[in-house]
Amino acid sequence: MEAPEIPRVRVGMVGAGFVARIHAEAYRQVHGVEVEISWVAAARPERAVEFAAEFGARHTAVDARVILADPAVDVVDLCVPTHLHAPLAVEAAKAGKHVIVEKPLTGFFGPAATPRARMLREALASADAVIGACRDAGVRLCYAENWVYAPPIQKARRLFAASGGPILRLVGEESHSGTHAPINKRWETGGGGSLIGKACHPLGAALYLKADEGRRLRGAPIRPVSVLAEVAQLADTAAFPAGAPGYLNTVEGADVEDWGGMLIVFDDGSVAQISASDAVLGGIRNQLALYGARAVVFCNINPNDAVQAYAPDPAIFAGEYITEKIETKAGWTFPQPDEEWMTGYPQEMQDFVESLALGREPLSTGGLARDVIAVVYGAYLSAAEGRRVELRPLL
Amino acid sequence: MEAPEIPRVRVGMVGAGFVARIHAEAYRQVHGVEVEISWVAAARPERAVEFAAEFGARHTAVDARVILADPAVDVVDLCVPTHLHAPLAVEAAKAGKHVIVEKPLTGFFGPAATPRARMLREALASADAVIGACRDAGVRLCYAENWVYAPPIQKARRLFAASGGPILRLVGEESHSGTHAPINKRWETGGGGSLIGKACHPLGAALYLKADEGRRLRGAPIRPVSVLAEVAQLADTAAFPAGAPGYLNTVEGADVEDWGGMLIVFDDGSVAQISASDAVLGGIRNQLALYGARAVVFCNINPNDAVQAYAPDPAIFAGEYITEKIETKAGWTFPQPDEEWMTGYPQEMQDFVESLALGREPLSTGGLARDVIAVVYGAYLSAAEGRRVELRPLL
Amino acid sequence: MEAPEIPRVRVGMVGAGFVARIHAEAYRQVHGVEVEISWVAAARPERAVEFAAEFGARHTAVDARVILADPAVDVVDLCVPTHLHAPLAVEAAKAGKHVIVEKPLTGFFGPAATPRARMLREALASADAVIGACRDAGVRLCYAENWVYAPPIQKARRLFAASGGPILRLVGEESHSGTHAPINKRWETGGGGSLIGKACHPLGAALYLKADEGRRLRGAPIRPVSVLAEVAQLADTAAFPAGAPGYLNTVEGADVEDWGGMLIVFDDGSVAQISASDAVLGGIRNQLALYGARAVVFCNINPNDAVQAYAPDPAIFAGEYITEKIETKAGWTFPQPDEEWMTGYPQEMQDFVESLALGREPLSTGGLARDVIAVVYGAYLSAAEGRRVELRPLL
Amino acid sequence: MEAPEIPRVRVGMVGAGFVARIHAEAYRQVHGVEVEISWVAAARPERAVEFAAEFGARHTAVDARVILADPAVDVVDLCVPTHLHAPLAVEAAKAGKHVIVEKPLTGFFGPAATPRARMLREALASADAVIGACRDAGVRLCYAENWVYAPPIQKARRLFAASGGPILRLVGEESHSGTHAPINKRWETGGGGSLIGKACHPLGAALYLKADEGRRLRGAPIRPVSVLAEVAQLADTAAFPAGAPGYLNTVEGADVEDWGGMLIVFDDGSVAQISASDAVLGGIRNQLALYGARAVVFCNINPNDAVQAYAPDPAIFAGEYITEKIETKAGWTFPQPDEEWMTGYPQEMQDFVESLALGREPLSTGGLARDVIAVVYGAYLSAAEGRRVELRPLL
Q1: Closest Cα in chain C, distance from residue B38 (Å)
Q2: In this complex, which of A30, A58, A320 lies closest to D162 when CB atoms are compared?
Q3: Which side of chain A, N or C, has fewer Cβ within a 10 Å radius?
Q4: If you measure CA to CA, which chain B residue comes closest to C290?
């Protein structure tokens, strides 16, 4: 018996920042497929060089187009600001490259005062452009929604599959004390606030789980049919400034919401309550609850109590990571032993490179990405007009 | 130094069922005021006699009017089905008795098909009738919202008061696997489903906490200004019957919702996400989270981990109470060491009899009761018409 | 039907400090029995006056003997340093007063270098003197071990009673960052360190639960037969001083242990692992686990998650109590909504005054108190001689 | 820049059972080193063939010596009953193979009535034989103590390293409802009961962490100096048979202890309380608490709340794994999303193959394995003779 040849996937990274590093670290942990980081492109050449040195990328570039021109690249991994996702993805597809796009796939990028109906229309058109370009070029679109791969979410999926019963209600949230990145505080570059930047995670997982359930129980995905939503800028109220000197990060310079809540109805009559906030202290919260007719499952991605730590003074743990966005390292905390693993990054990249190496669909697809866009921008429209938005015409 | 005379409060109980027993047990624990249960009235005489024997009530009656006619009664405690609250409360007030009314204060009781706008109008008129009658008669109206008194809620109030900062967002829920009482499954007698019967609790606590915060920070209560809501009958869907044989109690004979979600905005820009469900397995959930600009507090009334228990077989703990509505006593459970205490009943009755003995307002008032009615029926209107409902004109 | 006359118990408090205040607060919450604090005695007259004003005590004294001479006093409540328990209890019994004694009942009080065998002998003789005096005088001895009354412990007892099965193993602990009281850091006044001052609590609960089980399952209490123990002064090691500037309180001036662990075997073959430490950061830990042949119960007296709070800065909750001995109010904490209730104080005083008013034994007796002394001083002997100590000859 | 050649490690598996499968699954996830399972040996040829088919092993054998004779094998992985560890490890070393041995490294295997002093002597001699053979042959000895690699343990190590302070006290436990494997119920094959089979895990982690701390803070490992211990057969008592029909697995045919508790003192004055039981219901417990002078860390390997699930009936989750040794799938449970990962298996194999490929020591060494043997058999001696056992002469 001869050992099989290990397949190889050659990646061109576009971007060398925070997310690119998480992806590269995840590629390093891939097994069974050899991943080669062929290129890394960054606007600031020194960052590309640094990244290449750390992660063993073969070539560096300033312009992503150089990567697209290299026939030895199999897939382009777009770790760039959200408003650049769609144009780069379309170009990559046209160049015949598979595409990995970070969440959200795309959105509307323009003035905050734009009517939400137009935002919704343009965001969907942008998503369709990406999906169409990939389909036309015969390349795969991998939607990097890590929650689909987070171990608690996949365990919940298996538990519900074992139970044989439906999910009647989902309650999910991602929140923390606010982005530090200016690009995510503005409609022009972030395409919205808490809903598009954070709620996309529990929403993506919820849509994925209901679609999976539908395929299992009735042979076709269960889809959302309506959304009712409210948004707010909690850190921009009369009461706020006096009371809160600096714990929340979205106070200055933001034109997007720092809280949004959505009430979603699915075509089987089940519901989801999905919310997100950039005005939550105490460290990131990544949670999804599944209430079923025969079972209940809670996914506590973050925090959970696998590790609990205490320090009387915040300086004591200064040298060690605790968890995303925690304001103090004093008191009791819930440090993640391996935040990337619990959040699904290595599993996500494993699936993506396997999907490319083996010629199959990844678990997290462009179709899911588009549904997320439809629901979130439907929610923006709902909140603006104070009415329920029907999603069927949009899907 | 002479010991002060202990004041006495003479109570006429109307009703001898589940709630009446909880109240009577709570009266027994009152200290510093002598509580005498003078009367107990029940439609079935033998239940009144039984109750009197157990709790030491002096007299029994079939008709509550007999109690109202006794000049030796100070306060009437209405532990009767919801649709009887308002008429009995008005009569009691007219008879010069103080009134204790279980939650919800009142509602709309009629056909399920009634337009929600009319429901809202009539429910508020009913609340106003009770409040007006008490005001005119110069008697106190004690609104038996036990969450106001639940130790975790009061601790949260004190922690936020200490913090000096505002609550930006509340997330609350009461849920379980559904009422067994037929009267609570129908609009005619229950006045609605999960929202009026369960969400009234976290909603009442949220409104109480924001009102309290307003008085503290700006000298006037903070009030809700709008509600967006969705409701559903989760146990009445195509997928449901096959999968869930009998764990949920609301399947048969219900014409009310078994899930509702509300998105509420307050006049200071803060928000609340309040939901309730009669389609949740695993034991009752009573939870409220307070996210502030300087602090976060979670109130885990039920479940919490003060006690954790495990039995490999459900028969093992057959003889001991675990927690409300848990479907099995097998596996890990979170038994309440004293569910009444943790839920606020003894503290509530202590406050009520003190308020009567000392001539001061109770913490939970008719004003709070009316706000709850306005928000919940505003939510029913919102869900029916698929639009945001403004609350200011209703308060 | 005439209301029964409410019985009355007249208490003479000896001591006006921390524990006396907890007791007085608990007396205030007693229902069904009228508790009158007739006297309060304190060495410093102004403290007695203050206490009397706050809790409504009728008379104040400097010398406890004045209280013993008043025929109108029913029971004396000894809230004094441990080394004063026994002499005062004996005197009170001789004066015909019932006696309430805080834990531990008594001990050995003398030089740290005293051989442990002598400590054991003298401590037991002291306990016997108290028990004998009460028996001879026909008065009750109430042993104020609040854990017997803590709601989680009583719930565990009921759950095991329902299960019908034995407890095979108990694991219990009380720990925190160390006493501030100099009297509890020295053998002369404290009678030992962590074992006598803290481990007495989980040990008392464990002995109570096994005795109760024995009465239930075989008609006679199950008793301990041996103890193996180790003690240490963790805050007095080579490594310690450099690393820990000031978080632990037992560093200076202590001649007693700040950690002890006991391995106890019962006469039915079951076991207990009981430990205590004055070198534990993060707030007091009060925990007991019961592993049975048919069930498991965890009692999380402190911490538990009924309330969880977070503040980015320790000053934010400066004005509100969090939990005993927490070093910082920053980060996540587990504030007790009502620490006295969860720890069993009101329930304890309710039982004591009822036992006196109704002429029955309290749940926590002198017999339990003596068993605790035997095991703890047996443990000191075991640790000193590095060998198992048989308890049968001592009980 | 040229991609570096990926190093390759060729493994000969001895054993094809439960543990071998966990190891093989872990090898599959190794990245950066190519692992080839060259051989699998099993006494029953069909099991080897099955295993080879599933995990891609190249050759199968009945006799491990065939593997030792193949010069193409780099390392032998011994997944065989404990009493076979030492002889096979010595043979493998002599054949020039690196050796991976499951925990415990070795022990005493003979009649239960053997004096514990002889057990201790022979177990240490056996450990020394293995270590000596590896040293003489110049091969590495990898001690497969997965707790060293469990993410919560490594996070705790990093948090304490960051804190700069010492661990003063460790409290650890591994327990469940008892082994099903007859070989682990007998001294002849298991070398003891709960202490050697389960306590070895938290003990191994505790010894590892204190050794690591010593190297960091004083340049040399901190070692244990004494142990006091007690053992019991809880499922073999008078009370037991009536109450517990079948939930515990060690009742029939066992001659080893089903509970053991150890009190260990280290050479820096710090202590550890390590226990294990085969008489614990509710699913496996894998926990270690670290109490330091500046910090506290709890490692909740199992259970933790990353996922919480509920089913009203045990059949509902019949098709999905929950957690090791849980007696019922009803009620609330804490399913592990990936039990191998959380328990450290993939990380362990990654370290082992890297240590072989790169020529460095693994984290978990033969030295640690020997210390575990010394403490556990010292504990058996302590329990038998009822006295503290000094460890210094044994290390």
Answers
A1: 10
A2: A320
A3: N
A4: B309
* pLDDT recorded at residue C4: 55
A348-352, C191-195, C348-352, D182-186: lowest mean pLDDT where?
A: D182-186
CA distance A46 to C264: 66
Q: Which residues of B touch D284 (CB under 8 A)?
A: none
Place of tokens 């070795």: D106
In Å, the largest CA–CA distance within chain A is: 74
Contact A154 D300 (CB under 8 A): no
Structure tokens, A370: 């588009």
Residue D332 at interface with chain B, using a CB cutoff of 8 Å: yes
Helix count and strand count (H, E) for chain B = 13, 15
What is the value of ipTM here, to two decimals? 0.96
Q: Yes or no: say if D230 and C228 are a contact pair by the CB < 8 Å rule.
A: yes
Give the torsion sign (CA, A229, A234, A235, A237).
Answer: positive
Residue with tokens 């009735």: A218
Helices within A69-199 (DSSP H only): 85-94, 116-137, 151-163, 187-190, 194
Spatial separation of the C-alpha atoms in residues D188 and D111, rounded to whole Å: 6
Degrees to nearest 5, angle at CA D212 with D35 and C174: 120
CA distance B230 to A388: 9
- At residue A350, φ and ψ (nearest 5 deg) are -60, -45
Residue A313, chain C, CB below 8 Å: the answer is: yes
The CA distance from B39 to B64, in Å, is 9
Please determine, for residue C239, whether its predicted confidence score (pLDDT) is greater than 80: no
Nearest chain C Cα to B53, which residue?
A: C1
Residues on chain B touching A294 (C-beta within 8 angstroms) = 243-244, 247, 281
- In terms of C-beta density within 10 A (0-12 exposed, 13-18 middle, 19 or more buried), how is residue A392 classed? exposed
Residues 6+ apart with CB under 8 A from B167: B160, B209, B210, B213, B270, B290, B291, B292
Two tokens, residue B126: 């009913």
D93 three-state secondary structure = helix
> Which string of DSSP letters, residue by residue, matches A340-374?
HHHHTHHHHHHHHHHHHHHT---SSBHHHHHHHHH
Low-confidence ranges of chain B (pLDDT < 50): 1-3
pLDDT computed for residue A2 by the predictor: 45
Span C358-386, pLDDT tens digits: 999 999 999 999 999 999 999 999 999 99
Query: What is the rounded CA–CA span in Å between residue A328 and residue A337?
Result: 18
d(CA C104, CA C372): 8
b (16+ CB within 10 A) / e for C270-287? bbbbbbbbbbbbbbbbbb
Residues of chain B contacting residue C154, judged by C-beta atoms under 8 Å apart = 337
CA distance C316 to A331: 13
pLDDT digits (tens, 9 = 90+) for C82-138: 999 999 999 999 999 999 999 999 999 999 999 999 999 999 999 999 999 999 999
Tell me the chain C residues in contact with residue A327 when contact means C-beta distances shorter than 8 Å.
Answer: 312
Beta strands in chain B (DSSP E): 8-14, 34-41, 59-61, 75-78, 98-102, 141-144, 167-175, 224-232, 259-266, 271-277, 285-292, 296-302, 307-311, 331-333, 389-390
- pLDDT of D253-307, one tens digit each? 889 999 999 999 999 999 999 999 999 999 999 999 999 999 999 999 999 999 9
C379 vs D: CB within 8 A: no
Q: Which two tokens stand for residue C78?
A: 């000894």
Distance CA A247, CA A257 (A): 17
pLDDT at A3 over 70: no
**What residues of B are in contact with residue D282 (Cβ under 8 Å)?**
310, 332
With both helix axes pointing from N to C terminus, report the angle between B366-385 and B116-137 in degrees, rounded to the nearest 10. Answer: 170
- Confidence at residue C11, expressed as pLDDT on a 0 to 100 scale: 98
